Structure formats: C-alpha cells, structure tokens
Amino acid sequence: MAKPNRVEVLSPEGCRTVVADEGTAGREPGSLWTMAPRLDDLRGKTVYLVDTGFGGSGKFLDEMQAWLAEHLPTVVAVRRRKTGHVFRDDTKDLWAEIKERGQAAVLGVAG
Amino acid sequence: MAADRRYYGVPLRFAYTPHPVAGMTSSVLRSYVEGVDPASGRLVMDEVVDALTKPLGPGERVVEHARVPWSRLPQELIEPDTEDNLQRLFYERGWTDGLPVILPTRERVAAMLEGTTHLPDEVVGEIYLERTFERVRFTVEMVAIIGVMAGARPEHLPVILAVASTAEPSIPRSTTPFGRMLLVNGPVRHEIGMNAGVGAFSPRTLANSVIGRAWTLLTISWGGFRLKEQFWSSQGNPVSYSNMCVAENEEASPWEPFHVEKGFEATESTVSLFRGWNVVNNVVGSSHRSVGEDMFTQIRPLVSPYSAATLVLDPLVARHLESDQGFKTKAAFCRWLSEHFRLPAREYWDNDVVDMLVGPLAVRGVEPYATWRNLPPDTLIAPYDKPAEMNVVVVGGETSPMWKVSDFSYTVSASVDRWRAQPLTTECDDGSCGLAGESLPHAGYPRPGDSSTGTPPAAF
C-alpha cells in the first residue's frame, strides 16, 4: 500500500510581530510611577468602595460594606459608583474626591 | 493578595472573587465576600485588608515604563505530515473553528495572493492581546493563509483583507454571547458571486460562507481565542461560524445602499461590520398591524443602550414601507420608530446593560437620561432616542415579506477596492502605487516582479 503524501503547510499564526508593550498611559517612555503608600491599619479610616458599574458589582460591594460594618466597625466605608464609562479610564472627579476625603479605595468588580 | 500587571504595567493589588457576580443573589454575594479567593486560596477579605495595609514591596514603589521594541516571532515550522495528521494538528492547536480547514500549503497561499497586488509582507493591521500584553501585527500573507483555511478563492481575498484591516474581532472578548454581521456593498458583490437574495443568510453560497468564516479564523488564530484563555463566552453564539456574512440587495432596494449612507460612492465596494447579541426573525408578515407596530413587539425585549438597532428587511418589506407607507428614506423609517416606540422607564433601567452603559450618563446629567432616571417607573419613554444609530439593510429574495430585528450596532466600514488586484503595469507618480507602508518579512512566495523562489528569508 502506498504511503500517504506528506504535505508542507504554513502556520496560521504566521510570522507574528510582537511588542511586549505594556502601555504608558500617555506618559513618556521611561517615566516613573509611584504607588500610594499603604495604611498602617484600617481602623478609623475612610475606605471608598467603588462600583465599576458592571452588572452585580454594586450588590457585591454592598455585601462588602456590610461585612466591614460587622467586622471592622470603625471603618467608614463609603459606597460610590464609578463615574464615566464602565470600561474606560475616564473618571476624574471621583478620584479627586477620594484623594481629598478618603484614605483607601477598593474598585470592583467585573464578572 | 495577588499582584498583577494588568494595568499599564503598574503592579496593582488584586483579590479575586468566585465567578460570576452578575445575576447572583445577595446571599451568594455575601458568601463570596466571606469566602475564599479562588486564585490564592486565601480569604477574600483578608486579601482586601492586606492589599490596603501591607507595606509596598520593592517592585511596587516605583515602576519604570519602557517601550519594548518590536520583535519578530519566527514563522513556526510545522513538520510535513499527512493531510489527516495536519488536520488533527490544526484542530489541536486551536487554529480552527472546529471544522476541517483547507490546509495552507505554500502553493495554495501563493495562488490566494494572486487576489491582490499588495505585497505579502505589507502590514494590514494590528491587534492587542490583553492576556499577554502583546501587540500583534498581521500581513497580507497571513490574511491569505487564513483565506485558504476558510476555503476562499483568490477573488475573495480583497474582501477578507478589508475585514482584517479593521482589526475588529469577530468574537469580542466577553462572557456574553456577542455576534457579528458582515455586510458587503458595491460591485464586488456580483464579481465574487455573493448572495443578497434567496437564502442569503443560509449556509449555501460560497462567497458568503468563506468570507464570514475567514473573519472568525482570523480572530481565533491571532486573537489567541483558546477556550478559557481569551475566550470566555458562557454559551457562545452560533452566528460566529459565519458572522451573518451577506451582501445588500441594492438593486431591489428602494433606498440608498448602506455604504452610500456612510459616505462611499455607489461604485465603491465596501465591507461594513455590526456587533450585538440578539436577532429576532418575524414570521409570515404583518396582516393585522403595520410593519413598524409589529417591530415594536420584537424590539421590546432587545432594548439596547445608545439606540443601537439594525433592521434587515426583505426588498418586499422595504418597497412596502417606501411606496405604501411613505418612508422615502431608511432614515425616515428609523425616525418613525424612534418617535413611536415606548417603554416604561422601569423596564428600561432594570436592563443591566442599559444600567451599566447609560446609567453613568444619567448620573452626569446628560439628557434625556437624567430625566428618565427620575421618572415614575411606569412612565413611558422613547428609548430609541438616537435614530441615527439605527440601521436599515435590505437583504432577501422576495419570496416572503420577512425581516430581522436586532440589537446590533454599526461599528465600521472599510474599502474593498483598496485591496483589489490591480493591473500589474499600473504605475503612479511616486512609484509606490499605493503600496507604501511598513513591511514585514514574508514567507517567500513568488510575487509579481519578485525573483524570490519561495525560500523563506533568514528571519524564519
């Protein structure tokens, strides 16, 4: 019995040209970012719980707020919804408010 | 506490909840809060508290951004094998839509490239892979490989290139069942035998089938659309096999072709892309009420944000609307729908997608959404307030007065003519013949005026 023909084919992923560019968020390449320092603890602190607006996230953060009230009652947990579009980095007013009045923020959730 | 580099390289601290969150009851969500992070195995709230209080590590204090230069990944060498084994390999690598493909041999790809005079190494577009932070550029040659796999002929290649040039995926990344529609307008419809008439959306006509299929194979191959990697749609959508690829029945329509509405000349050939979730077909016709009133019953469960809707009308319906009901343009019919369709405000805002996307506009005071947000729940509103966002397309074979109503939005149109095969003797003033642009190494196919013999360049 004759052997089946062997075929030479090309990969559909081809010669991909790739850059591992993580983005610069509008900054010049090589610029520096500094993460905000962490808190010593949360007691007596104002923590913003920011709902992205994705379905269910508000209800989830309601439950997180209830948990904080029960387990860390001195935390002032402020529930807010992200202003602007749910999928875009277009919020300014709320971030300014958190910087002025809050000490920490939790942003969530998607899914 | 999980550090992650998802956001512009900043090592944000993430805690993960079980999935899904959307649609879960309060008690389930409370169990998520009190439960374990499925990624780390630690309690979710321990992770949240730690994220806010644990001192920053060395890698978190300062992040230096640096653009990494483009780098070329070599063309993967696939060992020659039998057709059966290669079919299996392609499937197992996740390069197919689950169906057998035409294997892209060098000869078949070279033949496919005859469908355009653009050089194989010309960059067609670029996509971003969020999972790996990669930007992937793709070339004419790579599109031709996909065209072969889809079963296309060389004459189909310009249309597939036009779709690829938009860099839009046929399967948007989402846990929802997104679907797409691909509409072709202009003379190319006839030249390549596209179906705009009887059974245009059905699996019957080569051009419709292979062009629509190629779009999804493009998405799968370059978008890394492996199940549970980049592809998480909970149920998926059968539309994605061929993406409702169809031509507009311009000759039977009483109205302007779709691409002319978008600023193209009638003599130009284009592809136009749409995106949404739901398509509702009417059945029989509308003997007891007007077409528009019938559509209200179909639009109601679809209510989508931003007035997004696409109506696909058989020519019988289009001509009825134009001659019997006096809608002299597609836009006139959309305006009528916009003005007359009503919905209780509560029904509108209780739609999660509307709340997610339109809710922030209401909060910002954008009208009419801010007013709608404060209305008594039973007050009727006209939620399709932007008739310009509603689209009408004429497709069908006039065997019955059928139509489809969808929540699809129009996303983009692209020129097919740009990618056509031009006479090889064509010259232009600057010598570029419209082919200027960045190039990537190609796999060495013979091409017009090229002495290449098919040997891959050293980069491979």
Lateral strand order in the biggest sheet of chain A: 4-3-5
Strand order of the largest sheet of chain B: 8-7-9-16
SSE pattern of chain A, N- to C-terminal: EEEHEHE
The main sheet of chain A comes to:
3 strands, parallel
Q: How much strand content do the residues of chain B show? A: 15-25%
Structural class determined from secondary elements of chain A: alpha/beta
Terminal residue distance of chain B: 42 Å
Count the helices of chain B. How many?
A: 16
The helix count of chain A comes to 2
Poorly predicted ranges of chain B (pLDDT <50, ≥5 residues)? 423-460
Number of strands of chain A: 5
Q: What class would the helix/strand composition of chain B place it in?
A: alpha+beta
Beta content of chain A: 15-25%
- Largest interface: chains, residues each: A-B, 63 and 90 residues
Assign an overall shape of chain A: elongated
Q: Any idea what the radius of gyration of chain B is?
A: 25 Å
| Rg over C-alpha atoms of chain A, rounded to the nearest angstrom | 24 Å
Number of strands of chain B: 16
The amount of helix of chain B comes to: 25-40%
Blueprint of the fold:
The complex is a heterodimer of chains A (111) and B (460).
Chain A: E1 17-19, E2 32-34, E3 46-51, H1 57-71, E4 76-81, H2 93-101, E5 104-108
Chain B: E1 2-7, E2 10-14, H1 26-34, H2 44-53, H3 58-61, E3 62-64, E4 71-72, H4 83-92, H5 106-112, E5 123-129, E6 134-139, H6 140-150, H7 157-165, E7 179-185, H8 188-191, H9 206-223, E8 245-247, H10 258-261, E9 270-276, E10 279-281, H11 291-299, E11 309-313, H12 315-324, H13 330-340, E12 343-344, H14 345-349, H15 352-363, H16 369-373, E13 380-381, E14 390-394, E15 403-406, E16 409-415
Parallel strand pairs in B: 7-8, 11-14
Antiparallel strand pairs in B: 1-2, 5-6, 7-9, 9-16, 10-15, 11-15, 12-13
Tell me briefly what this model is:
Chain A is α/β, with parallel strands linked by helices. Chain A has helices spanning 57-71, 93-101, and strands at residues 17-19, 32-34, 46-51, 76-81, 104-108.
